[in-house]
Each structure stands twice: as structure tokens, then as C-alpha cells.
Amino acid sequence: MTAIRVAILTVSDRSARGEREDASGPALAEEVVRQGWALVQRDVIADDFLALCEKLSAWADSGEFDVILTTGGTGFGVRDVTPEATNEVIERAAPGLAEAMRLASLQITPHAMLSRATAGIRKRTLIVNLPGSPRGALENLQVILPVLPHAVQLLQEHPDAEAGHRRVDSSAG
Asked: Is the CA virtual torsion 85, 90, 91, 92 positive or negative?
């Protein structure tokens, strides 16, 4: 399988205005490269529902990315709309990813219960929301790293995607 093609989108009003340096995007980019994956695109956008919907849709529809990682906008803040925008553009939810990230994060901090992050699929692209802090983003990415290559294989209908799955024998009784 070829390298997973990743886009990283930082969602932050202050970073988009240049008032605060984006720390999460570069931290995620470093990890993506460490995994041997292709970092194809990185951008910063304000916490704006319509702009976020447009960006996620355009990136997923382009066919250029296997995975889009967002960082930021998943909390309780009034302008935190990343999960809503993600849910607006995805065609199928992937709740297990967000559930696993929250479960693992709960072992680190009770604040994990406040995460509204979501994940889902648009066309053949997986979109995953990560927290806005570099530490939180990396911790959550580490949780899902083991399954991302297989998820991409399934989305791309790779011939070997089903090879590791156990099949239920319907004749067994």
C-alpha cells in the first residue's frame, strides 16, 4: 500500500488572525511524517462553520487525501463548531474512533468528558477531529494510529483489506 495521504487543518480564530502561533498543526505534521505518511496539505482556518464545511468538503471531494485531521474547535466554547461542521459534511459516521480517543483520554484527564470530537467518512476520505492542544492532539492521534492504515485500505477497497478479518462460518452450528 502506498503512503497514507494526510491533510491537517487547524481550527482556531486566534491562529487564523496571526495572534497565536499554531502549535498543534506542526506537532501533528511531525508525527504524520514520522509514521512515513505523506503530509500533502496543512492549513489554518477560523472557527467559522460555513468556511469549515467548505474546506472539509473541498478537501475530501478532491480525492487528494486519505485522512483529514482537524485540530481545535471541539470543546464547549461558543465558537467551537468543528464537530458540527464535520457532521454536516460526512456521509457516514465513524463513532468508534472518537469513542476510543475519549476513553483513552479519560485515563489521563477527567476533562476528556468535555470533548465533542467526532469522526466520519466523506467519499473515500476519513475526517477525524482532534483536540486543539498539541499534547491532546498527539495523545488522541496515538490512540487511533494502529487502525488508520486498515481504515484507509477499506476506504480505498484495497484487495488485501479483508485479509485479516475472521469470517463467520454460517454452516457451523
From this structure: negative
Interval 27-42: pLDDT, tens: 999 999 999 999 999 9
CATH number of 5-155: 3.40.980.10
CB atoms within 10 A of CB 108: 11
| pLDDT, position 166 | 57
Report which of 164, 157, 100, 160 is spatially closest to residue 128, judged by C-alpha positions: 100
Is the Cα dihedral 79, 103, 142, 64 positive or negative?
negative
Q: Which helix (H) or strand (E) holds 5?
A: strand 5-11
Which three three-digit cell numbers place residue 125? 476520505
pLDDT at 163: 66
pTM for the model stands at 0.92
Residues sharing a CB contact under 8 Å with residue 9, sequence separation 6 or more, in sequence order:
25, 42, 43, 44, 45, 55, 56, 59, 68, 69, 70, 71
Residue 66 neighbours by CB under 8 Å, 6+ apart: 4, 5, 6, 124, 125, 126, 152, 155, 156
List phi, psi (to 5°) of 94: -130, 65
CA-closest candidate to residue 66, choices 11, 127, 25, 145? 127
